[in-house]
Amino acid sequence: MKVLVIGAGNMGLTYSEGMAKSPLLGKQNLKIYDTDPKKITKLNKEPHFDVYDNLEDCLPKADIVFLAVKPFHIAELFKTMAPQINQQQLFVSLMAGVTIDTIKDGLGATKVVRAMPNLPAKVGKGVTSYTESEAVSKVELIMVRNLLDTTGTSIHVETEKFIDASTGISGSGPAYVFYFMQSMLDAALKMGFSAYDSKVLVSNTFEGAIELFNQSDISPETWINRVASKGGTTQAAIDSMDDNNVKQLIEDAAYAAFDRAIELGKEK
Ligand SMILES: NC(=O)C1=CN([C@@H]2O[C@H](COP(=O)(O)OP(=O)(O)OC[C@H]3O[C@@H](n4cnc5c(N)ncnc54)[C@H](OP(=O)(O)O)[C@@H]3O)[C@@H](O)[C@H]2O)C=CC1
Ligand SMILES: O=C(O)[C@@H]1CCC=N1
Known about the structure:
Layout: E1 3-6, H1 10-21, E2 30-33, H2 37-44, E3 50-52, E4 64-67, H3 74-81, E5 90-93, H4 100-107, E6 111-116, E7 126-132, H5 138-148, E8 152-156, H6 160-171, H7 173-190, H8 195-214, H9 220-227, H10 233-243, H11 246-266
Parallel strand pairs: 1-2, 1-4, 2-3, 4-5, 5-6, 7-8
Antiparallel strand pairs: 6-7
Bound molecules: NADPH dihydro-nicotinamide-adenine-dinucleotide phosphate and (2S)-3,4-dihydro-2H-pyrrole-2-carboxylic acid (A1CAB).
(2S)-3,4-dihydro-2H-pyrrole-2-carboxylic acid (A1CAB) binds next to helix 6.
């Protein structure tokens, strides 16, 4: 199986690194293509990849092609790709919003998997949702799942609506967590802690809370009650968040990302 990744940015490179480390593909079976000469020069120094700056040399020979460019790049990219593809090739899109029909129409292809990854894939802790077009066989879907799982874990969803929805939860989600972290770091610095101590306090708090959550069947709400003593400090913080409607605002933010994913799918 020969895999080509188009776009050596955050996601394309992350997936390339995940697949390169797995026993699924040898170096000669993994190719990466980008249009940025600086990225090509840098990647050429790495032993793990076969790097290309023109599609003619890598696209026709690929069995599975990952699409990891920004949605606004596809109009130009698909025009160049379409005359060079064949009907046996399977395309896996990591792009937010872009629908299976847009990819099928733009490339003249039938086998498309649409996936929504997230950035913790960089450290093998990503979560990817995926769904497929009718022409993708069960065996092909298992192959794709194995490739996606080289960066973490994955969930199969029945419809594209859930790809857009997971964009609002897990795709964009790491940014919400970093937003919360940044706010806590800023508060720690304001209280007088050094940058180093602020980082230790905040990162261990996140890591510890996640570990507690993962090692039990207890909901976050119940964990909140275990931290909060009646009339104590935590209750004061939670009351402040409730008074400011923080829960609703976070839900609104997730829906804003979900809505934007749908909107991106309609942009040409
Ligand atoms: N970053 C994230 O956390 C997530 C991103 N995604 C999706 O992944 C996709 C890629 O995002 P991300 O990796 O962050 O973006 P990046 O901008 O980091 O990477 C895109 C890469 O593709 C290159 N490129 C642009 N046009 C072409 C072309 N025609 N042919 C080949 N390469 C090209 C870009 O070069 P240049 O820089 O010169 O334009 C860049 O190197 C997006 O569609 C996004 O929706 C999904 C989930 C999470
Ligand atoms: O912000 C974006 O559009 C992409 C999709 C999910 C994360 N980054």
